[in-house]
């Protein structure tokens, strides 16, 4: 499966199959929330939340790819990510794009 954030793939002609997406809502445990809250007092990177968001993006991407595979897609083009806070310490991440199938040249 080819994943790109452009609306084309060099050397490939394709037909669009439709919008595909994957999402997740992630949170860290209360211990991590407290330690990361204290970190805001002294500054610096919030590593536990950074890891959480990386995991969430990976899971959302995998779910998007699974949806594309179910449509018989060879690739997903024009991929975008969005995130939003759901509540303190929890975030939703969505990955979306257009599933496409390659057309063989004659």
TrEMBL record:
Matching Pfam families: YbjQ_1 (PF01906)
InterPro entries named among the record's database cross-references: UPF0145_dom_sf (IPR035439), UPF0145_YbjQ-like (IPR002765)
Stored Gene3D superfamilies: Hypothetical protein apc22750. Chain B
Homology family: Belongs to the UPF0145 family.
HAMAP family: UPF0145
Name of protein: UPF0145 protein Aargi30884_12580
